[in-house]
Amino acid sequence: MSGTKVSTLALGTALFGVAPTEDAAATLVHFAIESGINVIDTANSYGNQARFDRPQGPTWKHRRSAEEIVGDAIEGLREDIILATKVSEPIGDGPNDGGFTGGGLSRTHIMRNIERSLDRLRTDYVDIYYAHHPDPLTDIEETLRTFADLVRQGVITHYALSTYDGWQVTEVMATAERLGLPKPICHQTRYSLAKRWVESEVLPATRRAGVGTVCFGPLAGGLLTESGTDREYAGDARWGGGRFTPAEIELNRRLTKLGAEWNLAPAQIALSWLLAQPGVSSAVVGPETVDELTELLPAMQLTLTSEQLAVLDGISPKPANLYTQ
C-alpha cells in the first residue's frame, strides 16, 4: 500500500480537444478539482489522433494533444492533484514510436516519451506513470528497470499497469520482487456493470497481489446512463468502434427502471455498484460537459444497500468461469 489518497472518481481526458473542446476543457478540469476529484488521468496518445475525429470538429492534425490541454488547465493547481499519464500506444509511424502489439515499453520508447509528456504537461514529475498495454516484444525486466530508474530520478512517483491479464500482473509482481524493484501502485482495466469479464481472472489476481484496481469505461460509453443509448457518439463509437448490442440495450432499460424506483440516476447507481466491488479504488469517468460531471458526483458519497447490490448483480450476470476462491 502506497498511502497515496485518491478520489473515488477520476477525470478522464481521452477526448479532450474534441468533447470537451479545448476551450471548455479547462473549465471542466477546474470544476472537477473544486468538486473533490483529485486524479486527472491522461495519456501521450489521447486527443490528437484520428480515431477521436468527429465530422463537426477539427481533425486530429489541427488539435493539440490531451496532455497539452491538461498541462494548461492545471497551471497553478499541480500540487492539488494526482497526475497520471501513460506510455506504449503508437504516437507516430517510426520503428520506435510504440504500438498496440508491442514495442511501446522498451527503454528507448519510455525514456524518449516521458520527457515529451513532462514538457506537454508543463510539470517536472508525474505521480502515476502507466504501462498503457503489455508489450510482448520487450523483456519485462527492461521495462521494470526503466520505471525504477525514473522513480529514483524523481521523474515519476509511481508506475502502474493498464489492460494486463491476471497472469501478466502476477508476472510483473514476481519479477519486481525477484529484482528488488518497486512494484506497481495499481492496475487500470475496463470494468463496469456491463463489462464484467475481468471478474473471472484479472480481479482475483490483482486482489491476491495487493494491487488496487482503477476502472475505465465505468459507464460503458454512456450505456449505463439514462440517455446514453440515444447519443450519436456512444459506446466504443466515441473512439471509432461500435455501439451497443441488443443485450446491452436491455441492460440499459432495466437499469433505468431501477433508477426510477430508487430515485437515483442510473449513472450514479452504476458507479456506486462498481466502487463497492472488492479491490476497486477509483473509476475514471469521461464527462464531456460540466453538467454531465455534475450528475456523476453524488456517486462519490452514495452507498447502495446489500439488497440493491444483489439486484444489480442479477440484471448483469457474472462470467460463467468466475474464480471464487
Automatic annotation (TrEMBL):
Residues 9-315 form the NADP-dependent oxidoreductase domain. Keywords: Oxidoreductase, Plasmid. Coiled coil: none annotated. It holds the Pfam family Aldo_ket_red. One of its GO terms (molecular function) is oxidoreductase activity. Gene3D superfamilies: NADP-dependent oxidoreductase domain. GO terms for cellular component: cytosol. PANTHER family: NAD(P)-LINKED OXIDOREDUCTASE SUPERFAMILY PROTEIN, NADH-SPECIFIC METHYLGLYOXAL REDUCTASE-RELATED. This is Dehydrogenase. The gene is bfzB.
